[in-house]
Backbone:
């Protein structure tokens, strides 16, 4: 897997792709290369590529210079020198909080469960509970498999 700062060959290829992905904005390759050059120390090559592509497809990003700026295209990508742009996590549940109300889905569920006026007709039947449990086990297995596979690829 690629790590470290982006090389000139990688930047040249990425600039071509980002230019094509920019659509109606028509970012020129030279402008994208300049932006990548300025941003090359802010993240690893893969993270910079992801951020540049996100920036290219964002209709509000008018110029490739935005690639090197702090913003939503860096979400979930460590950004050297910038503020933390990843969503905050709930201290109770460890789940990302929602931007709308600042609660995570676990807090919302806890609030609803504690509501004295809840409708008891919404109870889940035993058959549905078993179906839900089977689905949850399947999802957990898939997540574990994806994590294991990703870790093996990173080690290569």
Residues:
């Amino acid at each position: 897997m690629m790590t470290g700062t982006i090389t000139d060959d990688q930047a040249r290829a990425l600039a071509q792709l980002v230019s094509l992905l920019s659509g109606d904005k028509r970012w020129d390759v030279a402008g994208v290369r300049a932006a990548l050059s300025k941003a090359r120390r802010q993240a690893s090559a893969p993270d910079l590529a992801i951020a540049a592509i996100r920036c290219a497809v964002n209709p509000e990003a008018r110029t490739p210079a935005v690639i090197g700026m702090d913003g939503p295209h860096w979400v979930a990508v460590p950004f050297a020198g910038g503020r933390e742009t990843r969503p905050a996590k709930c201290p109770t549940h460890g789940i990302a909080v929602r931007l709308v109300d600042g609660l995570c889905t676990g807090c919302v569920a806890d609030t609803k469960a504690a509501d004295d006026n809840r409708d008891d007709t919404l109870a889940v039947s035993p058959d549905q509970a078993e179906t839900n449990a089977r689905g949850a086990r399947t999802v957990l297995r898939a997540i574990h498999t994806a994590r294991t596979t990703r870790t093996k690829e990173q080690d290569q």
